[in-house]
Structure formats: C-alpha cells, structure tokens
Amino acid sequence: MLKFKIALLFVISCFALPAFSQVYITNITIVDVVKQQLLPGQTVVINNRIISNIQPAEKIKVPSGVTVIDGTGKYLMPGMTDAHVHFFQSGGLYTRPDVIDLRKYHPYENEIDWVHNNMEDFLRRYVKAGITSVIDVGSNYHFLQQRDSFQNKSYAPEIFMTGPLLTSYEPPAFKNLGNEEPFILVKTPEDGIKGVQAELPYHPDFIKIWYIVSRNPDSLEASAREFQPVAKAIIDEAHKNNLKVAVHATQRITAQLAVESGCDYLVHGIEDEIVSDDFIQLLKSHNIIDCPTLIVEDGYFKTFGQNMHYSDYDVAISNPVQLSSIQDLKTLPDTAFTGLYKRRFNSPDMMRRLSHEDSVRMVNLKKMVDGGVTIVAGTDAGNIGTQHASSFFDELLAMKESGLSNWQIIQSATINPAKILDKEKGMGSIAIGNKADLLILNANPVERLENLTKISLVINKGVVINPSTIIK
Q1: Which of 33, 181, 294, 467 would you call most buried, defined as having the most Cβ atoms within 10 angstroms of its Cβ?
Q2: Which residues, including other chains, have CB under 8 Å from residue 386's CB and lie 6 or more apart?
C-alpha cells in the first residue's frame, strides 16, 4: 500500500508540475505571420515551453497560481531569427585577418579566444533584440562543441550551426588553426565527400559550401563550372546523411550551378547581374530559400573608410568592446597604412562599386519576392562592421528600402527561416504546439517596422524575460 501511495503521489506530481510553469498572456493582439492578419483580444497559454492554447480572451478562464501577463494594448509575435551569422567572427576590426591583416597589433589567437569567452554575451544580446533563433552559416569544430552548452539556457537563442565551410579557396590567414579553422579546402569530389564525413561526428545542423571562383569576367563561368562536380559531391553526401546544404554564391552563375547541383539554401543575394525570370523559376522549382544579406558589404566600406557612425540602438544592443574596436583604424600607429584604406574606400570608384552592387542586390531581392521565392532575413553578423544582434534591424530596414512590405519583412524574420530546416510546424509562428519563443511589443510592427525594437517582454524557451535586465 505504501508503495502504491508513493507511486500515486509521483504520478500526481508529474501532472501538477507543468502548472507551475504556466503563463497566460491575456487580451493581446496576435501578429499572425502565416495569414498576414492581426487578431485582437486573444489569450495565449504557455505550458512547459509550449503554446498550449489560443482563444478569444472571453473564452478562457485564468486559473489561480499561474503567471499572468496583461497584453492590453500590446502585440504578440513570434521571436525572430537571424538566418545568417558567424560566431567565429566578432564584428570588430580584428576578426578577418584575410581581409585586413592587423595581427601585429592584435593576435588572431587572442581574437578567437575573446569570442569563445564572450559568446554568452552575444547570445544574451540576440535575445534582448527579440531574436530567439540564430543560424550560424559557417563555423568550426570548437564552436560546434560550444553550441551544445547553450541548448537549455533561457538567455540564449536556439542555435543552428554548420561546421567549417567546404571551400574551393582557403585564405592563408586561417590555415593550421586546428579545431578553430573555419575552412576545409576541397579540390576534388572525393575531397568533398571526405569533408562532409569529417564534420559528421560534431553533429552539424547542415553543411555549408563557400563557392569562391575567379572574379575575372572572362574566366568566371569556367571557374564556376570547374568546381561544380565538387559541389555536387558535397551536396549528395550531405543529403545522404539527412543534412541540408547552404551555399555562399554571390554571382548568378555560381548560384545557378549550386541550385542545379541540388543545394537547399543560398546565403547571399546575387550582386553581379539582374537575375532573369528563368533564374527565378529555377529557384522556385527547386524550393530554394534565399538570404540576401544586404548590409554586410556596407559595414566593410564604412569601417575601412572610417565613416562608421552608431545609433542609440546600436549602442544599446551591440557588444561595446567590438563596437569601439571599429574606431581603432583611426588610431593605429601606421598612419600611412590607415590613410591608404581611408582614401581607397572613399574613392569615387569604390563608391560607384558599392552603389552598383547595393542596387543590384535590392532589385534582385524585389524580383525574387515578386516571383514567389522564399526570402529570409540574415545579416552575416560577425563580419567587420556588422555587429551581432544590433545589425538585424538595419537589415530589415534595407529590405524595406528594396520595396518589400512590412508583412513580407516580418515573415522573412519569423516563419520563413523555420522553413530552412523544415521546422515551420514547431517554430516561427504563433500556433498551438509551437515553441513558446515570443515577443510582446508595445506597438504594432505591421504599422511601423521600428516598433520591432519596442519590446516589452521576450518569452524565450517558455521563460519570461525583461530585455532590460538580460545583459550582465
């Protein structure tokens, strides 16, 4: 009898425990990102990290002993996803020695150690900005191991991550770094297969190809076609192991060949030409998802031209160490070196190049959206001048400038990224059974995108968080 009572008490406690984690959000307006509509006067129930009920407020009786959030006058939307980040890059001046080599001032080993030691800070800043999921599209083995330590932390977004980039070109600055090396050089299809297999023990969420080819217009296509058999071998091996493949492809021909080879996710917009209707149809027929990354190049130009200026939002969200490092180029002792960069990146030729590529990317983004291609918002955060967390809102504003509607942009930041890894039935929207990764906003984001920054509360992994207190 005693054993029976103990067993019965255990069963009762199992059913009673979830009640202590119940949250009722009452009288709130839901931002329905799937149907593109606002649903006022709703009550949403969260039970053990999952949305368990959604009904008009008058139909739900709120029990005693639960957490109640009065949503009157506020808006509830899914947490956002930055679909293109790199944690091995800090966003600061010293993070890309292959682009600007400042290792004599700041050793790269110190830089990568700093990022590992401050990854938690970056993650907290993402949640503060309303970003409850991030997709790291190019990492290394050490970060894959570190990823798992944040899995159940309420202050951290959900992290999806590739291993090292399988690439046709490896920058010398990143060689011989062991588990910190972000690239695996692959020259043959056999190399590509082995590259995928080398990553499998680290359990990447997908595989990434860095499709780098000649920038000479006369040899561009030949160079791209030379690497295609390698790319196809990588993609086939990844799919054989139930892993999707993301591809860095900024030229139309590399993107085309990657899609024809079976890739799933293009992680940049096309910048060398306005894409044709046939190209858009190719993407649609292969169910390709595209991430345009509109602002990352501008971050380099502003940093090297010493024209970077920060908004109050940047200062509030960004890591202050990396934000301030961007200004170091003005104070390095080698003034001839820094002056050369300043003149080069403020020259009329460079300004014309940036303007042209920006224009092409924006025209292509609008054409793709109008043509029915699924678009996701991503920043390429971690690159020089593109800060983790704070840059996401700048990316959304750039998408707005390209002609997308507020609804389209909100979808690109919520439900569309969930489709990258076939998780749209569990995240990215407000639905019964979905994860409780949510934002409570003080104003309507459909009316003004700026209202995405007016966050009252973040609910991350079912835990209610005041964004003003999340940064240590």
Answers
A1: 294
A2: 91, 295, 296, 299, 379, 380
